[in-house]
Write a structure and sequence with these properties.
alpha+beta; single chain; three-stranded antiparallel beta sheet; 17% helix; Immunoglobulin-like
Length: 149
């Protein structure tokens, strides 16, 4: 009987933890950075004279699920970590690796040409190349003045 009560209390505790997790995830917007919920995808931003390079570690991600977009100065990366257990696996004892859909929003400094951007995925790393636009600071642009009346 004691074992049965102990098992029941453990189930109640587990349900409480799951409720807390779902409440935390419920507050995230669909395009919000999921790293806030613990699904962080590590990345590096590198600067070259002609381009900005972004390298994102995405092992186990189906390349067909990847979407990369520029929204203003924000680079948005979406995809899905898929993992199916090996045949014959009955249960997990510990699961730390994330799975499911993810979204990551990175802010890019400087003017880039998103129309000439490119992305490649190889050996679990997504590399995004964002060509720089010519520097416009210091350039003088005349603005015509219209006289009315």
């Amino acid at each position: 009987m004691r074992s049965m009560v102990s098992s029941f209390l453990e189930l109640v505790r587990l349900q409480s933890e799951m409720n807390k997790l779902f409440e935390a995830l419920q507050h995230l917007q669909s395009d919000q950075d999921l790293s806030q919920a613990g699904f962080a995808t590590p990345y590096d931003i590198l600067e070259a004279p002609e381009a900005i390079l972004v390298e994102v570690d995405l092992p186990g991600v189906d390349p067909a699920s990847l979407q990369v977009e520029m929204k203003g100065q924000d680079l948005v990366i979406r995809g899905e970590h898929e993992r199916t257990p090996a045949s014959g696996i009955v249960a997990y004892h510990l699961m730390e690796r994330s799975r499911g859909p993810f979204s990551r929003r990175l802010q890019v400094e400087g003017a880039v040409d998103s129309h000439q951007a490119s992305a490649t995925y190889a050996e679990g790393v997504l590399t995004i190349r964002l060509p720089r636009l010519p520097e416009r600071r210091g350039r003088v642009t005349r603005i015509p003045v219209q006289v009315k009346g």
